[in-house]
Design a protein that fits this description.
This protein is an alpha/beta fold. It is about 20% helix and about 35% strand. It has one domain: Dihydrofolate Reductase, subunit A (3-Layer(aba) Sandwich). The protein has four helices and ten strands, in the order ββαβαββαβαββββ. The strands form two sheets. Strands 5-4-3-6-1-7-10-9 form an eight-stranded mixed beta sheet. Strand 3 (about 45-50), helix 2 (about 50-55) and strand 4 (about 65) form a beta-alpha-beta unit. The two termini are about 20 Å apart. Bound molecules: NADP nicotinamide-adenine-dinucleotide phosphate. The site of NADP nicotinamide-adenine-dinucleotide phosphate (NAP) has 28 residues, from strand 1, strand 2, strand 3, helix 2 and helix 4.
């Protein structure tokens, strides 16, 4: 059965991005990147056009669906759709779907996902301009693991899985 998920990393202010980049370098929070790769491996990922631009390329080993209002957009390795409904329709037979951002896509998708895999980073990054929505009370943490900062992860962080009550 298909399950639809969100995966996200946010700071103490629920910030997820700044000037169309993540708030930390890939090598600065390596366990978060590793978790992202493990969970989304062989899955379908759905993202907004700005997140695609930010990443710079289709994510390898996954089906990449990108939302844009631009009907002429073509990008190697990705399937462009023009609405979230179209994204869901085209992925309805896929086993595992992850909405991977950014902010505008999370906001539109959050009411229609089963699970949220969050990395909650214990940092407060200046100048952030993209945020993750505040979760309604129906969302409950069903798993939570805390980690300290170390040589591969510059901030302390928590992996939390949320499901609806
Ligand atoms: N920390 C994290 O976990 C994480 C994850 C992902 C991204 N981010 C960050 O989030 C930021 C980007 O977020 P964002 O909100 O600015 O951009 P975004 O959600 O990645 O992309 C927005 C674009 O998606 C398209 N779009 C959105 N809704 C649509 C709809 N209903 N139908 C058709 N197209 C639609 C539009 O593209 P067109 O303009 O082409 O029409 C829109 O401009 C960046 O800073 C990025 O680094 C963080």
């Amino acid at each position: 059965m298909m399950n639809r998920n969100i995966i996200v990393a946010y700071d103490e202010n629920r910030a997820i991005g700044k000037e169309n980049h993540l708030l930390w370098g890939q090598r600065e929070m390596q366990e978060d990147m590793k978790r992202f790769r493990t969970l989304t491996r062989k899955a379908t990922v759905i993202m907004g056009r700005k997140t695609l631009v930010s990443i710079g390329a289709a994510l390898p080993g996954r089906r990449n669906i990108v939302l844009s209002t631009d009907h002429s957009l073509v990008f190697p390795g990705v399937e462009v759709v023009n609405s979230l409904d179209e994204a869901y329709a085209t992925t309805s037979q896929d086993n595992s779907v992850f909405v991977i951002g950014g902010s505008s896509i999370y906001e539109q998708a959050i009411n229609n996902v089963d699970r949220i895999f969050a990395t909650e980073v214990a940092a407060s990054i200046d100048g952030a301009d993209s945020f993750f929505p505040i979760l309604d009370k129906e969302w409950k943490a069903v798993e939570s693991e805390d980690y300290k900062s170390d040589e591969n992860n510059i901030y302390p962080y928590r992996f939390v899985t949320y499901e609806r009550d």
